[in-house]
Write a structure and sequence with these properties.
Largest sheet: 4 strands, antiparallel
Distance between the termini: 47 Å
Helix content: 25-40%
Number of domains: 2
Shape: rod-shaped
Mean pLDDT: 86
Strand content: 15-25%
Amino acid sequence: MGLIEAQVEAQGFMALLANAPATAKQQIQDALEDTHREMVPKVTRDMKRAAPVLLGNLARSLSGVVESWKRARWGTLGKRVAYALIQERGGVIRPKKANRLWIPIGEAKTAAGAPRFSPTDLMGDPESLGFKSSGIGLWAGKGKKVATDTAFGFTADGKAQGLFKLVREVRIQAANAGHGYAMFSLEKRLDEYNQSAAARIENALAGVRGF
């Protein structure tokens, strides 16, 4: 699943709402909804900053929405970003069809670590990438093949350049040094959230009979 959703509910204020007179219920609900509207942009901004920036797709996909006075939600919100969940929680990536994952190395990746081209490009049309040929393994003397876990591009002068590592699995640590980006960003704003809601409710109920 490429979907991350973090949500906050106004559970802490439910008892107050349940015991409030009818004249105060709407004021409390409006105060809670206003708090969501204040905090959603802040939490969304924090999530974008905490998300990994390899390509920027995840950060761009993150947004927040106020559903009602009860709930606000953040995350990819329906947009499918394949690595959203694993960047939040960490985990292991394994190939679904092939025997190995192809991890770009050397000139096959950008300074940020993103691939410059695909394994299909290298193996199918190496000349378009400036190589005479490509292959997995090295050939040494009399056509003898030395098996390796690396895919190479071979230049016209016979030099081999390692471009992809072939591995069985990749272990991914959650983004933000293992803390994730969604729940981490929400949790660090919870005190501010609660204080803002309490202040808004106090102001809303000022002068209401029974409070």
